[in-house]
Amino acid sequence: MLVMKKVRYGRLIIVFSILLVAGISTGFLVTQETRDFRIAKNLDIFFSLFRELNTFYVDTIDPDKLIKAGMDNMLKTLDPYTVYFPESEADEFSIMTTGKYGGIGSLVRSAGDYVVISEVYKGFPADKAGIKPGDLLKKVDGTSLKGLPTDKVSEKLKGNPGTDINVTIERNGKETDYSLKREKIVMPPVPYYGMLDSKTGYIRFTNFTQNCIDDVKAALIALKNNGAQQIILDLRGNPGGLLTEAVEIVNLFVAEENEVVSTKGKVKQFDENFKTVKQPVDDKIPLAIIINRGSASASEIVAGAIQDLDRGIVVGQRSYGKGLVQITRPLSYNTQLKVTTAKYYIPSGRCIQARDFSHPNEDGSVGIIPDSLISEFKTKNGRIVKDGGGITPDIEISPEPLSQISSELFRRNYIFDFATNYYWSHPDIKSPEQFKFTDQDYSDFKTFLLNRKFNYKTVTEESLNELITNAKNEKYYDIHKDLFNDLEKDVAHSLDQDLIMFRSEITDLLEDEIVSRYFYENGAIAYTIKNDEQVLKARDILNNKEEYSSILNGTAGSILVTRKNDQTGIKPDKPENRKIMEPM
Questions:
Q1: β-strands 143-144, 559-563: how paired?
Q2: What is the pTM of this model?
Q3: Which residues, at least 6 apart from 389, have a Cβ–Cβ distance to it below 8 Å?
Q4: CA-to-CA distance for 31 and 25, rounded, in angstroms?
Q5: 274-295 pLDDT, tens per residue?
């Protein structure tokens, strides 16, 4: 009897289990079917909407423009890195991933009705023809560029390598025609490397484009051959790029079979662990990585992996905080979708993504990950590190912002324009060592500003003006008129006093811009790093073996250093210092 009861009980369990599984499966199928139906339904609505607009709208519709706007706005509800590239933007996408394009080798910016050449790359067509920063670009192939935005002008300058292009340049009021042949322009990922002293090698690394490992490796080997016993790798302003190149860069300093980064997402086939697989160039040489707010994605993989593996120290500012991985998916008609598929995790297990795009606020904005959700992890040596927003340096150097006068001078191109005048009036500077910005030069700059009628309002003055406007609207101004007049006198700034008070940082900006006119980007870097406090701090720690070891062993306390300003030879107006590129 007991046996029969057990058999019945067993059968009941089996039947219940079958029913439970069937119920779950049915629920899943219904859910999936409902989701598929919703997709089909909404696509049908979208098609019907477009068809009716195309048929009945009062004006002729541009289908490419309308659909592109719809797709762009759809993707904006996700994250800023999931992007659609139409066929017309194939060149931009290629430049992002390879650093190569066909053109004349220059950057342009707006300057009134026309654009001005803002930078010329050494050794490329524009440079070889004698075109200089500050030249006004008037025509391309005989067509006037008046009123065209910079992106349209840039499109006209680009083209297949080997094709001819004619440009008309205005310099000092005189127009000149130049006949050029476009070349494949390769933006160097290592614009400068050199010895800071007899034993410290320095590498400025600006982009994780295809095969950038070759340039970084060559620089590292050359420095070692030149006597370098310690290395500073500068990733400030490096917006990232290809994930695989980041793994290779780490592999220069880390032995085989060390995990550098892993990716985890919804589609498990894209989950991967990336390890070092080659012999390193040197896995013992003391190493310092410098980062700032502009160091993102692949830069953070390198800095974070070096930190997590206790392979070197990290100096500077907290990095950008981009821990999302994108892949490219080909679409029809030569279009592309760059889509976020996963998050990446560095060796300690932490993700450095700073923002949570999957849970937007009610107003649609995306918040920073709160402290309550930030977790602690440990490095190889047991040091505490945290996730939730970028890489925090071992040695934090928090820069003070530029003064308002310096920012205004830079933003409104007075620094740039004076450098142009200086270049044409001082043609005999042969080396950076010969250059010195004198008291007379600064006096000339003040005269230049006077002739340009330069002035500006401080934030305090703007706020007071707004307060006065509000007071007048609310009928309080006349009652307190004397008080407002006194306030206006008290907060009014003096241009002459500001030029004296902030002379040092204004001079830094001027020297950086002027040196780059003669010696290009690499010359400007070589000139500015001599007094770069972040570089000098990194070198000091490398020179102090006891301090260097104590940081890596976790026995050193947190160190905070405040710098005078943020002049690091990285110009804030350069596109590559604003645009965040993603690991592909």
A1: unpaired
A2: 0.82
A3: 318, 321, 352, 353, 354, 368, 369, 374
A4: 10
A5: 999 999 999 999 999 999 999 9
